[in-house]
Design brief:
Number of strands: 22
Structural class: alpha/beta
Strand content: 25-35%
Low-confidence stretches: none
Radius of gyration: 24 Å
Shape: globular
Bound molecules: flavin-adenine dinucleotide, nicotinamide-adenine-dinucleotide
Oligomer: single chain
Helix content: 25-40%
Mean pLDDT: 96
Length: 477
């Protein structure tokens, strides 16, 4: 303890105020526990609110609108001379973040949560040190680590935050680069690559593996890749970046294909989006009993308790999938477990959404995974081009696919690519969590005309009784 520093104590300390951390803190306070929430950032909300989910979706919305304006002439609406003002777009985005962060601060204050701004490091299983802010020490009964993740870097590619960027800087650009190279064809690469392609940048996406969004089924990825191609996005698969050289006004990027061919490409900016790594180093976890796996993720049990019984961990720092909604659920589970409730992270599925055009959304098992697990399957696929609402929305790309156990008709997985599927997937998640059968989806009345009808239609296809798709049947006479 240094003279002049504050010495605090608390029942529960939560380190990190992202979706995992603030959910844990709010739930713990609501369960009557005394909570201190520490974050080194100036505002609550974490990576998701300030540098991730929300700013990226704001820019995706704004640039999607631009696309829609351009396509409106076929509906008899001509909007000539559309002008994009990136500074105003950034201000609009900043206003959303500010409003949400303020809301979180008010919700924390109302719950009596003590907020501390500073960097936390462990000095033992019951003690923390806080620096770079409201310096001091803190004694706690239980801690919840929710420190999130940060971008991975590539050898030979030095991020300077200006011309060679991570998603943080790419979300804050005040000017539209003429030529943008995106390293990594994953979630961030495709979402932010789409933003800049819509704004008029010549975008090149370099992906190490044989397909974009590795791990996601080919039919879903194809539905996204085709429109990117049509828009002029240059997609280089099985390719890696060996280095980036500064050539005065522009950057020269050296690419190497799997085949051995090399090429130099001139670009104005580079976005590095090759995955994220956990913020578990720098916490001084050696002072605790917390154990890490080989990639640095904190190992946790179903209650999100670490190997140190006083310390819990939630969110990106505990591993894949690194998604905000998974972090939030884990945060609530940890808080409830500490409060003595019978809580466990026992969700059947964590949904995922890629906000490309069209969007991809999925939950539960893929066909291949289900077959590998020994299931015989009933699969039903319904295309959006056969759906009235999709036509009236002028968005007919894609389909919904349901995958069920053929023996009991129980839904195992749902795959969606198309308009609005980021919202439609919620129904599929609920159905899987509740053990719904195809029949439940098929006979539940879905409002007409809506995109949600495609879920019921896909279930009817799987049950071989679709009316909007014709199946020739053997004559019964
Ligand atoms: P974070 O949100 O990363 O928060 C961690 C907090 O801990 C930070 O505020 C940090 O300042 C603080 N911290 C770290 N170390 C310390 C320390 N030692 N002391 C004090 N404070 C500390 N997920 C989705 O589900 N949907 C999306 O659409 C989506 N879009 C994304 C877009 C981008 C560009 C990025 C980068 C990510 C996106 N994600 C999305 C992922 C999502 O942001 C993360 O899964 C989520 O933020 C994880 O939440 P968390 O609570 O674990 O940590
Ligand atoms: P990612 O894992 O989604 O994609 C990284 C991509 O980079 C992969 O396709 C990988 O094969 C490729 N890659 C790796 N090394 C490479 C190299 N040397 N050269 C070229 N390509 C290389 O990671 P991300 O896009 O950085 O996003 C990180 C995480 O953030 C995601 O996994 C996801 O959990 C989260 N996120 C979610 C959303 C969403 O939910 N919509 C959006 C953005 C980010």
């Amino acid at each position: 303890m240094v003279m002049g520093e504050i010495e605090r104590d608390t029942q529960i300390v939560v380190i990190g105020a992202g979706p995992g951390g603030y959910a844990a803190a709010f739930r713990a306070a609501d369960l009557g526990l005394e909570v201190t929430l520490i974050d080194s950032a100036p505002a609550l909300g974490g990576e998701c609110l300030h540098h991730g989910c929300i700013p990226s979706k704001a820019l995706l919305t704004a640039t999607h609108l631009l696309d829609q304006i351009r396509a409106a002439s076929q509906m008899g609406i001509r909007a000539e001379q559309v002008v994009v003002d990136p500074a105003t777009m950034q201000q609009w985005k900043a206003g959303i973040l500010e409003q949400l962060a303020k809301g979180l601060e008010q919700l924390a204050e109302r719950r009596g949560i003590e907020i501390v701004h500073g960097q936390a490091t462990f000095t033992g299983s019951r003690h923390l040190r806080i620096s770079n802010g409201e310096a001091g020490s803190l004694a706690f009964e239980q801690a919840i680590i929710a420190t999130g993740s940060r971008p991975m870097h590539l050898p030979g590619v030095e991020v300077d935050g200006e011309r060679v960027m991570t998603s943080r800087e790419a979300l804050q650009l005040q000017a539209i680069p003429e030529r943008l190279l995106v390293i990594g064809g994953g979630y961030i690469g495709l979402e932010l690559g789409s933003v800049y392609a819509r704004l008029g940048s010549q975008v090149t996406v370099v992906e190490l593996t044989a397909q974009l969004l590795p791990g996601i089924e080919r039919d879903l990825v194809q539905a996204v890749q085709q429109p990117l191609w049509k828009r002029g996005v240059d997609i280089r698969l099985r390719t890696k970046v060996i280095g980036v050289r500064s050539g005065g006004q522009y950057l020269t990027v050296d690419l190497a294909q799997e085949s051995g061919t090399t090429q130099a490409l001139e670009v104005d900016r580079v976005l590095v989006a090759v995955g994220r790594r956990p913020n578990s180093d720098g916490l001084n976890l050696e002072q605790t009993g917390v154990k890490l796996d080989a990639r640095g993720f904190i190992q946790v049990d179903a209650q999100r308790r670490t190997a140190d019984p006083q310390i819990y961990a939630v969110g990106d720092v505990t591993g894949e999938p690194m998604l905000a909604h998974k972090a939030a659920r884990e945060g609530k589970v940890a808080a409830e477990a500490i409060a003595g409730e019978p809580a466990a992270f026992d969700n059947v599925t964590v949904p995922a959404v890629v906000y490309t055009e069209p969007e991809i959304a999925f939950c539960g098992l893929a066909e291949e995974q289900a077959r590998a697990a020994g299931y015989r399957l009933k699969v039903g696929k319904f295309p959006f081009r056969a759906l009235g609402r999709a036509l009236t929305l002028n968005a007919t790309e894609g389909f919904i696919k349901v995958i069920a156990d053929a023996e009991r008709d129980i839904l195992l997985g749902v795959r969606m690519v198309g308009p609005g599927v980021s919202d439609l997937i919620g129904e599929a998640v609920l159905a899987i969590e509740m053990g719904a059968q195809l029949e439940d989806l098929a006979v539940s009345i879905h409002p007409h005309p809506t995109l949600s009808e495609a879920i019921a239609e896909a279930a009817e296809v799987a049950l071989q009784r679709a009316i909007h798709i014709y199946h020739p049947r053997p004559k019964t006479k």
